[in-house]
Write a structure and sequence with these properties.
The protein folds into five domains: about 1-175, no CATH class; about 230-295; about 305-385, no CATH class; about 415-565, Nucleotidyltransferase, domain 5 (2-Layer Sandwich), CATH 3.30.420; about 575-689, no CATH class. Helix content is about 40%, strand content about 20%. It is built from 17 helices and 22 strands. It has a six-stranded antiparallel sheet with strand order 1-2-5-6-7-8. Strand 14 and strand 15 form a beta hairpin. The longest helix is centred in the middle third of the chain and has 66 residues, at about 230-295. The model is unreliable at about 1-5 and about 665-689 (pLDDT under 50).
């Protein structure tokens, strides 16, 4: 029974005065009862349309909210955003498991807010506490810990559209009545001013015998005697004529504005036509000059020169040329300089950019680095050397390149397929019936920067001769990339920043590329009945895989990788060898150029390069040239390691064979020559090979 009474407390309150009370349900499911029995009243402060604002400091809240009579509804359109708080408004509600009776009062044309707390009493008879404030129950909410953005509206039941419309209609009706009264008072003041003008007119005409007629009406000193109804008609007629004159003046103003707009549009059209013709003439002249002088599509210009030219241009609107009458703002993004110049006289802003529409230098530079096979750091250095110091960031650079990869790869694969068909047609035409149809190809992989890198690309090269090509055409191409991950710390899990299309070691990457390329060309080979003679790296264990491919007829091993490893033991001597070799060439070439008596011959130079180097590394400098070896004339200097002093005679002989092979030059070519190095040069020139 108690739960049922608690559930229907609002129906009990409404039943006590059903004509003035009604219950509403809030958005959270709770109920409130609104009581209009005290009568709603609209105050003068409601004419100011000022809403309560609690964002200010608590010390100044009451002073700041003086004459406030509304709360703000932020989810309504502007004209309906203000909800009036009217004296006589009473609501029975619940908040924070307590029962409250909230009443809006009035004193000295200011709002007072009375709250009464009844604890858990649903009959609202056992009062526990009460208080009066001026801040729309804001202090009560803070005291009970119920403060939030929408609590005041919710407690007062001001989410109910019928309640809001009723309050707003009361304020609107009173405002309308006050506006009518104000208009009548304005008319009365106007009539008083008119009466003063008539009295002045009568005083001026007092000495004359005229009939005191004005606008066809005879003026009497005591005025006209009219009934109240006639007076009311005259007042309405006066306002009617004024409204008509106002409407006609408004129409005239609109017509004037329209005529002005039409004239401006006509002038702008003429100016636009002239500007269009002028722009077309400029483009025509520029294109002609670029074609005749072969200027190219892009020229270099210093930033100061570019900005100086922009600031020297006249304002396109007022044609002002004074630089102090304008301001400019620049924004730099990569290679793009965006400049906005604002005229202080006519407030016209003009935008300029060093890039054409559809042209992005950052993308062009990234593409140029790809086409030239140049990495980002090298290309940045080259651009910085010529003065282009402001460049795109690393992220933008690689993002631009990433967008180019897919179309480049797709284009490469399409080109490979086209040239493969061309090669097969050529081999088919030269094929003899008794011979096997063979397509000789080679396979190799390349990595970005170094082996075990994230990216690798592989290709099939045609190893035969094809008319019209002076290089070995690529007939198969594929790329794979490992996923890239980052980890902020050792305890954090890794995060994938790029998925890639493969996950494995470099050897697995090379093997996977080979399989993909074979799968790409196998359907074509089966159609044309060709078999493969394939050459692969000697260190690639692919014989078992290739042996399972029916179209692979023979497998050849490319031993160049093994050869590279033959002289690995002598890699530490690389700097010694190259420094000694270059010094000998330079010294011999200079002496021959100066026609000195001790200039060495070709044979002597070759001998010193080998035997002199070996003696030099054994710390015996008797055979060294003074301008090649400083230790020869400065015996106190020590020979830098590595040396051959701790090597056996067999090792030294092996070293001799290695450098003899390295220094061997083609038949008929010398180390030092005085032949012209260019057909454009008539005289002899010293060349170093």
């Amino acid at each position: 029974m108690p739960s049922n009474i608690s559930h229907t407390w609002y129906t009990t309150l409404v039943a006590q005065d059903p004509n003035n009370r009604h219950a509403i349900q809030r958005s959270n499911g709770c109920w409130s009862v609104i009581d209009y029995s005290a009568g709603l009243r609209v105050l003068d402060l409601h004419n100011e349309a000022k809403a309560f604002d609690f964002n200010t400091n608590n010390i100044y809240n009451e002073e700041y909210n003086h004459n406030s009579g509304y709360i703000l509804s932020r989810n309504q359109e502007e004209e309906r955003a203000l909800i009036p708080l009217l004296p006589g408004y009473v609501v029975f509600t619940a908040a924070g498991k307590k029962r409250f009776k909230l009443s809006i009062l009035e004193r000295n044309n200011q709002l007072l807010f009375l709250w009464e707390e009844f604890g858990l009493d649903t009959s609202y008879t056992n009062k526990k506490a009460q208080g009066v404030e001026r801040l729309a129950f804001h202090c009560m909410l803070k005291e009970y810990g119920l403060e939030s953005n929408n609590t005041i509206r919710s407690l007062l039941g001001l989410y109910d559209s019928q309640t809001i419309n009723r309050l707003q209609k009361l304020v609107h009706d009173k405002k309308f009545a006050m506006q009518c009264k104000k208009k009548e008072e304005t008319l009365r003041r106007s009539l008083k001013r008119g009466q003063k003008e008539i009295n002045t007119f009568l005083c001026e005409e007092e000495g004359n015998n005229s009939q005191n007629i004005r606008f066809g009406i005879q003026i009497e000193s005591n005025g006209k005697v009219l009934s109240p109804k006639d007076t009311q008609v005259l007042m309405l007629k006066n306002l009617e004529y004024k409204q008509e004159i106002y409407s006609q003046n408004k129409t005239i103003k609109k017509l004037k504005n329209k005529i002005t707009s039409i004239n401006n549009d006509a002038e702008n059209t003429i100016e636009t036509n002239i500007t269009t013709l002028n722009d077309a003439e400029i483009r025509k002249s520029v294109e002609k000059e670029m074609e005749e002088r072969q200027l190219g599509s892009v020229i270099f210009m210093s930033t100061s020169q570019y900005l100086s030219i922009l600031l020297s241009l006249p304002c396109p609107n007022c044609l002002d040329l004074i630089a102090s009458n304008r301001t400019f703002y620049t924004r730099v993004s990569g290679f793009n300089i965006y400049c906005v110049i604002t005229c202080l006289l006519c407030k016209t802003s003009t935008q300029y950019s060093n890039e054409d529409s559809g042209m992005k230098y950052s993308q062009v530079v990234a593409g140029a680095a790809l086409a030239g096979e140049v990495n980002r750091n090298s290309f940045q250095t080259a651009l910085a050397t010529i003065g282009v110091t402001n460049q795109c960031c690393k992220k933008s650079y690689f993002n631009c390149q990433a967008r180019m990869y897919k179309p480049i790869i797709d284009s490469a694969k399409s080109s490979c397929e086209a040239i493969l068909y061309e090669i097969l047609d050529h081999l088919e035409s030269a094929h003899l019936p008794s011979q096997e149809k063979v397509l000789p190809i080679g396979f190799d992989c390349s990595w970005s920067h170094s082996r075990n890198a994230h990216q690798a690309s592989g290709e099939f090269l045609y190893l035969g001769d094809l008319p019209g090509y002076n290089y070995q055409p690529v007939i198969g191409f594929h790329t794979i990339e490992n996923p890239r991950t980052i980890r902020k710390s050792e305890n954090d899990s890794s995060k994938i920043v790029y998925k890639g299309n493969f996950d494995g070691t470099s050897r697995q990457m090379e093997h996977a590329i080979l399989l993909v390329l074979l799968n790409d060309i196998m359907p074509i080979l089966e159609k044309t009945d060709f078999t493969l003679h394939i050459c692969v790296d000697g260190d690639l264990e692919t014989n078992r895989t290739l042996a399972c491919i029916p179209a692979v007829s023979r497998i050849f091993a490319d031993l160049k990788h093994i050869i590279k490893k033959q002289h690995s033991r002598w890699h530490p001597f690389e700097q010694h060898i190259m420094r000694y070799f270059n010094s000998c060439i330079f010294s011999a070439g200079l002496k021959n150029k100066l026609n000195q008596d001790d200039a060495p011959t070709e044979v002597e130079t070759r001998y010193i390069q080998v035997e002199g180097l070996i003696r030099h590394l054994l710390d015996d400098h008797s055979m060294c040239w003074s301008d090649v070896c400083w230790i020869k004339d400065n015996p106190e200097l020590q020979l830098q390691s590595p040396t051959l002093k701790n090597y056996t005679q067999a090792d030294i002989e092996n070293f001799r064979n290695v450098i003899t092979t390295i220094f061997r030059v083609p038949f008929g070519q010398g180390l030092v020559t005085t032949l012209p190095s260019s057909p454009k040069k008539s005289g002899p020139e010293l060349g170093f090979l």
